[in-house]
Write a structure and sequence with these properties.
The complex is a heterodimer of chains A (149) and B (140).
Chain A lengths: L1 H28 L4 E2 L9 E10 L7 H4 L8 E11 L5 E4 L11 E4 L4 H33 L4
Antiparallel strand pairs in A: 1-5, 2-3, 4-5
Chain B lengths: L7 H6 L2 H20 L9 E3 L1 H10 L28 E3 L14 H34 L3
Antiparallel strand pairs in B: 1-2
Helix pairs in contact in B: 2-4
The chains are: A alpha+beta (149), B mainly alpha (140).
């Protein structure tokens, strides 16, 4: 039954998007961190998504298996990894700050709060659309189970 | 499904059982589009119902679920089956910089459309089953 695989697909999407939300939360939480040395400053993290092609019709019916031969019909999402932003931390002159170095500078994170807010909105919308897919598929499968009753 | 396509039951259910298979496979393709809405370089794909019909039409002589031609002028179209359908890449209305061609609203529309069509097939099948049961019970 090809529809059962939709649960896996939508699940993989929700997993990826929730990881993105998680990383965004971490970035926003650390948006005001400062450090004494530039290499100690918190750097914005971002997940890298990739599609994970799977051969179509796994354990499916004979007919369903022959859709889209060779090219992998369903593609789940997987998170390849979390990369740290390579933008340099912001150097700020704050001699009164307890973490300031000998010259009076602190190094603030390179987190861009606007970018993170946009990321958060996009992740939550995508998560919602995966939930919709899941709900619709569930209704279709329940309808199939009730067939003839 | 292929083994006994000519059985009485399969003839009774007609095109709707394979149509259900087609719809569920399409649901999977559309779901994978929606799932990958944020994946760089992912290309949205779809299966066209017409392609399946045409592919089946060319093989009308082969065993399968077929429309019956009761008149010489009837066009032999063949039924619906999974075989012969190709995944096609969708042309995006608005290309994006990251190479992703999924447009969430388009895909959501298609997914909803496909879900309704799946439910339509379910209703047809339900009717067929009810008819069979009535025939068995003699309308009791």
């Amino acid at each position: 039954m090809a529809l059962f695989n939709v649960f896996d697909l939508a699940g993989s999407g929700m997993r990826a998007q929730s990881m993105r939300l998680n990383v965004t939360a971490s970035n926003l939480a650390n948006a005001d961190n400062v450090a004494t040395r530039p290499e100690d400053a918190y750097r914005a993290r971002h997940p890298v998504f990739a599609s994970h092609m799977r051969p179509g019709g796994v354990a499916g019916l004979a007919g369903a298996a022959s859709f889209g031969r060779g090219s992998g019909e369903s593609a789940a999402v997987r998170v390849l990894g979390i990369v740290e932003s390579s933008i340099n931390p912001v150097k700020r002159y704050e001699p009164a700050h307890p973490l300031a170095d000998e010259e009076g500078y602190v190094y603030a994170t390179n987190v861009n709060p606007i970018e993170e807010m946009v990321n958060m909105l996009s992740a939550s919308r995508s998560y919602q659309s995966n939930v919709e897919v899941l709900n619709t598929t569930k209704e279709l499968l329940l309808g199939t189970l009730r067939l003839g009753q | 499904m292929n083994a006994n396509q000519n059985s009485v039951l399969d003839r009774h259910f007609g095109v709707h059982a394979p149509a259900l298979e087609f719809r569920s496979a399409r649901a999977r393709v559309l779901a994978s589009n929606l799932t990958n809405a944020d994946t760089p370089n992912f290309k949205a794909r779809d299966i066209r119902f017409e392609d399946v019909l045409r592919a089946r039409g060319l093989e009308a002589g082969r065993a399968g679920v077929q429309m019956s031609a009761t008149h010489s002028a009837h066009i032999r179209t063949g039924g619906v089956e999974a075989g012969g359908a190709r995944l096609m890449y969708r042309n995006p209305y608005q290309p994006t910089l990251d190479g992703n061609t999924v447009e969430a609203e388009v895909e959501q529309g298609k997914f909803a459309e496909n879900a309704v069509q799946y439910q339509a097939s379910l209703m047809f099948l339900s009717g067929k089953i009810r008819g069979l049961r009535d025939a068995i019970k003699g309308g009791a």
